[in-house]
Amino acid sequence: MRVLPAAPSIEGLTAVVTGGSRGLGLLLARELLRHGCDVVLLARDDAGLARAVGRLAPWRGGTVRGVVCDVRDRAAVQDRLAEIARDHDGLDIVIANAGIIQVGPADALGPDGFQEAMDSVFNGALNTALAALPHLRRSPAGGRLVLIGSVGGLLAVPHLLPYSCAKSAVAALAEGLRAEEGPHGVSVTAVHPGLMRTGSHLHALFGGDRRREYAWFSALAGAPVLSMSAERAADRIVSALRRRRPRIVLTPAARLGARAHGLAPVTTTRLVSAFARVLPRDGARGTVDGSTVEAAEQPPARRLRRVLGALNERAADRFNQR
């Protein structure tokens, strides 16, 4: 078995994580703290940031603080990163993780749903990357930029089309910036996770037949074989940024899907089309978040879903999703 050399240390470096108040972002911050980084969390919700900092405070390593910032606001992102770089005498690592998930048929989500996904997922990553690069180029350790994509950006997933389109753009951005920033000493890592147990179903937005869309999405997101432990995902991502890897795809199912689509796109499209036939078809336009859908469930259905998705429900409690 081939033994990989030890990954370079990132102890003492300054790291920023967008969408860092909950879920995967919170776990990435925790992993960076464990490696001795000084971590700054960016998120829109002040109360959520305060809870996240409180959860991370017991972890030994570097320092942690939260900064309110909406990554859709280009000027705000530029100002906040400049302030962080000034306060910490530079910026070494930036992880663009913020975004939204919308679940439902394309016609139910509508043009506004696609625009919202592009604004939050792609423009959020773009604003973060372009604001971070001048600071990362000046990092004595060589800057590291990580863009969180998705296997949905490599293989379009039905009833997640706005998300897939936006993540596809993130994938292209990561590949292009990797090529352009190499001469400046900045590495860019594209991360494409599959399903992870982060508890994100409570903050995802559901359109169409919202109850049934919530049921299938939350069930698959918590399935032990199909989904991945979020802690393990965070460990793999931080290891990849330490090693300056160009790209990683997380979960065996995601790797299989991405490879199959690259080798036999017609066949995989037909298989995905078959999956789409069993998904809900009707329902209302517009979206509501998962916590609202869950609150409207009848107690027996809610109890059954929580039993079937126990791993994801525990993740929601542990990763600041409630």
TrEMBL record:
Alphabetic keyword roster: Oxidoreductase
SMART domains for the chain: PKS_KR
Keyword Endoplasmic reticulum applies: no
Coiled-coil boundaries: none
Domain Ketoreductase residue range list: 13-194
Domain of life: Bacteria
Record InterPro entries: KR_dom (IPR057326), NAD(P)-bd_dom_sf (IPR036291), Sc_DH/Rdtase_CS (IPR020904), SDR_fam (IPR002347)
SUPFAM superfamilies, alphabetized: NAD(P)-binding Rossmann-fold domains
Signal sequence region: none
Pfam family, one: adh_short
Family to which this protein belongs: Belongs to the short-chain dehydrogenases/reductases (SDR) family.
Protein name: SDR family oxidoreductase
Upper classification of the organism: Bacteria, Bacillati, Actinomycetota, Actinomycetes, Kitasatosporales
